[in-house]
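Lab notebook, bench 4. Still working through the backlog of constructs that have no structural model yet. Next entry is a single chain of 138 residues. Request: give me the structure tokens for it.
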Amino acid sequence: MRSFALYLLIATVGLCLSCGTDHENLPTGFAYDPPPTPEDVAVVGGHESSTISWSYPVEARGSIREFRVYQYIEAYDIVQLVGMTTGTAFTDSFLVGNLYYCYKVSAVDTTGFEGWRTPSVCAFVRTAGSAGAEGGTR
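Model written out:
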């Protein structure tokens, strides 16, 4: 048993030494510059749907593959992906009326990396049969 432990120790030291010399010239840091966060997010609640819109810098649009729209459930701090789009607006449909819905938006660059999400923006969604003014941003 003692010889096995000694063999294991020697093998581990040998592996560590060889691995260190094999990878000594590799970069150790990960440099990532995330895409800009979308701005001016607005949500308009309608009849069992919400329309989310935002602005994005024109000079950064060439490096963006898509935008991701997330529904944010504030009471439980849960974020859920509800859709992706290449434009600066998205409609979330088939929602339950008489509730507030909150959303966050992020940009994904052409390499597939996702930037920071926006702060949440909320709106009241009505049922299909309810009357009244359009729901607005909260």
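Notes after review: Strands lie at 39-45, 50-55, 64-73, 78-85, 89-92, 99-109, 121-125. The mean pLDDT is 85. Flag for follow-up if needed.
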